[in-house]
Amino acid sequence: VLSTTNASLHNAVVDALLRAANQLVADGNRPAASNLFEQLYRSRETSGVRTAAYAGMIRAAGQGALALILKGIEGTDGPTQLAALQLARAPRDPAAGQALTDLLPKVQPPVQAALIDALSQRGDLVSAPAVAKLAASRSPEVRAAALDALGVLGDAGVVPLLAESAATEAGSLKAAARRALNRLNRGPVVDALVTQLKEGNS
Asked: What is the pLDDT of residues 82-124, one digit of tens each?
C-alpha cells in the first residue's frame, strides 16, 4: 500500500500506520512499535513523516533512547536531527546531560543553539561551563542561546559575563543577557551583582 500512486490513499495509510505505532508504544508493545516506526523511517516518505517516525523510534527504544538521540543529533540527516533535538530533553538517564553536552563542539551552530535550548530545558547544570564558552561564539544565534540558557544553568560565577554582555551587546543578545541576569538564582547572585556594580562605577 505504501507504494500506491494515489496520494490521498498513501497519506491516509501512512497516518494510520503512525497512529498504530504510537498506540503500540502506549500499550507497552515497544518491539512491534519500533519495527513499524523503523519501516516508515527508512521508506521514501516526506521529511515530516520521517521526523515523526524517528521520534517514535526514540520513544519506543526504552533504555536505548539516549543512543538514538545522540546519533540523530550528531548526524546530518535533517528529519532525524530534528526529531532527536525535539526529544533531547526527555531521557532521564543520569548520563544524558554530559553526553548531550559533549556533542556541543561537534555540531554546527544552528544545532548548537537548539541543543543549548534543550540542555536549558532539561536543567542540566553539568553543561554550564560548556554553554558559558559558547557565549563567545561567532554565531549570534549560538551566543544568544548560550546567554539565555545561563540564566537557568549558571550561578553567581556567570554574573560578570552576563553583565558585560548586557552592557555591550545589542538587540537579541542584550535582551538574552538581561533575561539571564533576572533569572539567576544559584549562589550569591546579589553579592555578585553588587560587586559588578561597584567595579563598573570605579
From this structure: 999 999 998 888 889 999 999 999 999 999 999 999 999 999 9
133 — phi, psi (to 5°)? -65, -35
For 99, phi and psi rounded to 5 degrees? Answer: -65, -40
Contact 56, 33 (CB under 8 A): yes
Write the DSSP assignment of the chain as a string of letters. -TT-S-HHHHHHHHHHHHHHHHHHHHTT-HHHHHHHHHHHHHSS--HHHHHHHHHHHHHH-GGGHHHHHHHHHHS--HHHHHHHHHTTT----TTHHHHHHHHGGGS-HHHHHHHHHHHHHHT-GGGHHHHHHGGG-S-HHHHHHHHHHHHHH--GGGHHHHHHHHHH--HHHHHHHHHHHHH--SSSHHHHHHHHHHHHH-
92 CB burial (10 A radius; 0-12, 13-18, 19+): exposed
φ and ψ at 29, to 5 degrees? -95, 70
Cα–Cα–Cα angle for 165, 107, 76, nearest 5°?
A: 145
Nearest one of 135, 143, 70 to 103, comparing CA atoms: 70
CA distance 56 to 52: 6
Q: Are 93 and 60 in contact (CB under 8 A)?
A: no
